[in-house]
Amino acid sequence: MADKKIGNFEAIALILTVIVNHVVLNLPKNIIASSSSSSIINVLFISIIAVLIGYFVCKLLERFPKLDILDIANFLGGKWLKILTGILFLGYFLFTVSVVLRSFSEGLKIIFFPRSPVAAIMILFLITIIITNKIGFQAIVRSNLFMMPIFIFTILFIFFANVGNFTVQRMLPLLGNGAFTTFFSGLSNLFAFGGFAYLYFLPPYLKDDKGLKKITFASIIISGICLLFSVATLLFLSPNSVITEEVFPLYLASRNIEFGRFFQRLDAVFLLIWIISLTAYLSISFSFATRVFQKLLNFEYTKWYTALFCLFIFGFALIPKNMYELIFVENVIYQYVVLILIFGISLALLVFANIKYNLLEKKKGAVSIDKASI
Amino acid sequence: MQLLFGFDVGDTERIKVTFQFTMPNSSGENNPGETAPSVIDTVEAACIESAVNLVNTFVSKEVNLSHCKIVVFSEEMAKQGISKEIYSLMNKVEVRPDTNIIISTSTAEEYITSVKPSLENLVAKFYEILPRSSEYTGYTSDIHLIDFFNKLESMSEEPIAILR
Amino acid sequence: MRFIFIFLGYIAGFFGIALGIFVYLCILTNLKSFGVPYMAPYAPVTKVNSNGYFLDPVWRREKRADYLNTKKEKAQNHISMKWRYK
Questions:
Q1: Which residues of chain B are within 8 Å of residue A242 when distances are taken between CB atoms?
Q2: Share of chain A above pLDDT 70, in %
Q3: How far is CA B52 from the centre of its chain?
Q4: Distances (CA, A) of A123 to A120, A311, A316
Q5: Residue at B32 is within a domain
Q6: Which of A40, A134, B152, C40 is at 20 to 30 A from B90, Cα to Cα?
Q7: Which of C23, C28, C43 sits opposite A145 (nearest CB)?
Q8: Residue C4 sits in which domain range?
Q9: How far apart are CA A172 and CA A181, in angstroms?
């Protein structure tokens, strides 16, 4: 169907969305909090490991062309495993949307709307998400592709414009809190690459079947570069105890930009671009959630999904009562959810599915995975 | 449009805060010898927030701190320790991180009332250009609020400010 | 059309305008005129050379645009402005 196919660059932008939007929120702060001055080495290390994992995932997905992870779960364990995986991923998408929504709205409230309730800002976001989901999936993906170069340009711009205020010596105890913290417990910083969740669902939508490898490598490398630049900006700009207590670190870094007397307060422009990009991220996650739901239970009525999920998300987003709980949810719970679900369970599923495929091939000769019967 | 802050040791309360407001010229002509009217107010309060609240009650417009150019501390206040005021200034989103800090040998109120720039029409422009003279002299330096705050927090640097 | 943005700006300030821009962008990218997507060189990018940001100037383009799905790809000879290089 003409509705469903996505090209290569759009897929790259899709996977990039996750990390790039989390960079605005709180991601560099978490990385710097765990490995203070060795953050750059940590980020490089994590990017290399993510590239290796990406290569691994690509090889595993090669056996199953045009099947996403739900179909693979069905092949492996029947209907119940598929439903279980579906519920897990659905929960992950909804959880991500509500956490990101709440976190960004709190930040916006502090900066722009000090006297309005958080719920009002969240309702506005949710209305936009409903409208854009009614328009269609391809429109969202294309607008995302449109905003992505602008967004990356702003991150680089903040880095290069703040060069005058940098003290590079803050990088200096090079291994920071010790080699063990940097390399071993620093592995938990892999939660930054949450875009893998989209990669698992991507194969049915691709126009170009062989493009999966290019997409993975390109998106991981670009997201690594983005992460590196944003972490470097924050690390060089302020000492550690300042960064770990800020709300919106990248925005506060962008307030320092001053080119003589003419360009003085550029941070409003940045915030505009970040709002647009974040709405794109929320819409994409949301539409993936609805598609997972639709695949699990083959309902005919698709009109009610958006409103229903919006209510769920709104409810979830209002659960943390204040900023402290929100920071706990966002840093601790989200981190472990991403690590366990995306890097643990999904990789295990893929490995077992490949083993089963090999066993069946030895027995029968050729295995055909019938997609229509799923 | 609030232009600068001044902090002193207060008589009855903890600190004395001085505000200087300017109004943009509402008439169309601009006589070369005429300065924009500026209003100077002083209140005593226990912290910045309550000082801003007090001033809001008797000034007809809402005080907007985002055009604040410099912050003046008096010397005796600086000797007592200004970290609390720096923290509250940094926490406010409206105050720009590149406001300059000046420490004056007299009280802040006398300093603000006695500044009458002779080469400029607007006081705002004077305050903005003033620390930039550090680019071509050696006697001052261009210290922003964010630099001061960073050096205060980090364990390896000492904060500095301009003395007048 | 402008009134919608003014109204959004009144309701929610800067933030409302940003959301309005996003919805407008989504509607724009969904449009198709004569079978060609409306934001053609920017949004669905198929070849790296016909990207919306990095197009050659008109006198250097030798291939026809990719979103048209033409039968004949090259529109003019190689080095068509012969007088320039002589």
A1: 149-150, 153-154
A2: 93
A3: 14
A4: 5, 10, 13
A5: no
A6: A40
A7: C43
A8: 1-30
A9: 16
Partner-chain contact B93 A110, CB within 8 Å? yes
Q: How does DSSP classify residue A247?
A: S
Task: Give whichever of A176-180, A339-343, B80-84, B150-154 has the largest mean pLDDT.
Answer: A339-343
Q: Report the alpha-carbon distance of residue A327 to residue A247 in Å, rounded.
A: 10
| Alpha helices (runs of H) in chain C, residue ranges in sequence order | 2-30, 82-85
Taking 3-state DSSP, the helix, strand and coil percentages for chain B, each rounded to the nearest 5, stand at 35, 25, 40
Strand-pair partners of B18: B6, B42
Query: What is the span of the domain harbouring residue B113?
Result: 2-22+37-163
CB atoms B149 and A241 under 8 Å: no
Residue with tokens 């500095």: B160
Of A7, A2, A26, A21, the C-alpha closest to A284 is A21
Chain A residues with beta carbon closer than 8 angstroms to that of B98: 256, 258
With contact defined as beta carbons under 8 Å apart, do C52 and C41 qualify? yes
CA distance A102 to A98: 6
For the record, the structure tokens of B69 come out as 């150019």
Interchain CB contact of C9 with A (< 8 Å): no
From CA A178, how far away is CA A180, in angstroms rounded?
A: 5
Sketch the domain layout of chain A as residue ranges.
8-364
ipTM, two decimals: 0.79
> How do residues A230-239 score in pLDDT, each as one tens digit?
888 888 887 7
Q: Which residue of B has its CA nearest to A251?
A: B93
* pLDDT tens by residue, B91-146: 777 777 778 888 888 887 788 777 777 776 667 777 777 777 777 777 777 778 77
User: Is residue B140 included in any domain, yes or no?
Assistant: yes
Q: Which two tokens stand for residue B13?
A: 């309360």
The verdict on C38 and C69 lying in the same domain is yes
Determine, for residues B147 and A165 on separate chains, whether the beta-carbon distance falls below 8 Å. yes
Per residue in B16-69, pLDDT (tens digit) is 888 877 776 544 444 444 455 677 888 888 888 888 888 888 877 777 777 777
Asked if C24 and C41 sit in the same domain, the reply is: no
For residue B73, give the 3-state DSSP assignment: strand
Query: What per-residue confidence (pLDDT) applies to A30?
Result: 80
Number of domains in chain C: 2
CB within 8 Å of B112: residues ≥ 6 apart: B4, B6, B18, B20, B40, B72
Q: Does some domain include residue C83? A: no
Alpha helices in chain A, H assignment, sequence order? 8-25, 27-34, 39-61, 69-77, 79-111, 118-135, 137-161, 179-183, 196-201, 212-237, 240-243, 249-254, 267-296, 304-317, 323-328, 334-338, 346-364
- pTM, two decimals, is 0.83
Tell whether C48 is covered by a domain. yes
Query: What architecture does CATH give domain A8-364?
Result: Up-down Bundle (1.20)
Chain A residue whose CA is closest to B129: A261
